[in-house]
Amino acid sequence: MSSLSGRCVLVGVTGGIAAYKSADLVRRLIEHGAMVRVAMTASAVQFISPLTLQSVSGQPVHDALLDIDSETAMSHIELARWADQIIVAPATADFIARLATGLADDLLSTLCLATQAQIAIAPAMNHVMWDNPATQENIATLRDRGVDILGPDTGSQACGETGPGRMVEPEALLRWLTSQTDDQLLTGLSVLVTAGPTWEALDPVRGLTNQSSGKMGYAVAIAALKAGAKVNLISGPTALSSPPGVPTCRVTTALDMLSAVDAQVSDVDIFVSVAAVSDYRPEAHQTQKIKKHAASFNLELVRNPDILATVAGRSSPPFTVGFAAETDEPVAQARRKLEAKKVDLMVANQVGGENSPFGRDDNALILVESQSETDLGRGSKQALAQCLVREIASRYHAKYSAPGS
Ligand code: CTP
Q: What is the pLDDT of residue 162?
């Protein structure tokens, strides 16, 4: 039985030359046991006939927000709820911009806004349009919101030019969709993730914080959700939106983060501490803006509690994973923290220098245990998070299915 059996996949088709490939995608999904519905934009209809997609899917094709004529009509809200996964292939530059902006002026954009299903897009356009900063910013926005960006491939294009912009082939899209459901490694488990920086106010204007964007922690939360876990996220101040399907508690200070973790951790199987927690906070928080009267100024700081060590020190702790951000000797420092905080797994990443991960979409991670290291290499934060979740799952299951555990 295929891992797509019984999965409700909504295929969105937008108006590009590659739209003819969507019929092949629909056919392959059905062969693998998925239940498929198709939603087309008005311009997609210029490239491929709805009748073709109706024939291969065996279902009426949806193309209007108010589908009132058909007896089998599903409202856009019903369709949005029905889907387990939405894949828009091809996704034009125009559709990507509308999705990034949150427009809901046709059926497909409305579905994407109204769904809690995972959304993936397979961009297809001329390579100059793909490279345009406007498109790249839209892609970065969508990626930050947890949308999976599949491709594009590089090669010769319908316009006669060569470059990145070809839609990923249906076979590869199918492989990706299958891999998403193969990985139900955390089904039945509950995962708590912390992410982002903390902010320790000095006065109403200023504070102590750090460069963490929260992207790595949010990616870990999304990857754990995709692996079947029930996931909760506790986030310091970030510019990121809460990942769909992940209840997110927003906090400001390290003490707030500790209280939120304390309130949620007792029912948790796995705790992943990705947050860059401030080690110190100002001893006093001034209620009025500090004025520059004095020639020099001493700031009295007090230690914040260590949230990860507090969780690992509980009488019955969850499986605990920490991140070690280091400028020097990341593996040795991570191992020192692994032992000092008594956690199950430490993830080392090098910070500082030109490859520093802060704010970027890629990272390089090394898993550190007492006797061994596993280098996950460099990749997008999304791909690394997926890999990390797989590694955590295998260690969790090894620990708790061992005799006498
Ligand atoms: N951490 C935490 N609470 C703190 C400080 C850190 O929970 N007050 C967690 C982080 O989320 C991370 C791990 O501990 O998972 C290591 O954090 P890091 O900042 O690399 O190290 P520190 O323990 O703070 O040590 P140092 O700053 O001396 O490197």
A: 84
User: CATH says 190-285+292-400 is which class?
Assistant: alpha beta
Q: Ligand 1, residue 275: give the atom nearest the CA.
A: 11
**CATH architecture for segment(s) 8-180:** 3-Layer(aba) Sandwich (3.40)
Beta carbons within 8 Å of 360's beta carbon, 6+ residues apart: 215
Contact status, residue 67 vs residue 40, Cβ threshold 8 Å = no
pLDDT band at 1 (very low <50, low <70, confident <90, very high): very low
Decide: 324 in ligand 1 pocket, CB within 6 A.
yes
Instruction: Look up the pTM and report it.
Output: 0.70
- 159 assigned to active site: yes
Mean predicted confidence (pLDDT) in 256-283 = 97
Assess whether the C-beta atom of 272 lies below 6 angstroms from ligand 1: no
* Residue 216 CB contacts under 8 Å (≥ 6 apart), including other chains: 195, 274, 323, 357, 363, 381, 384, 385
Write the DSSP symbol of residue 62: B
Question: What are the angstrom distances between the C-alpha of 274 and each of 54, 166, 214, 362, 385?
Answer: 46, 35, 8, 15, 11
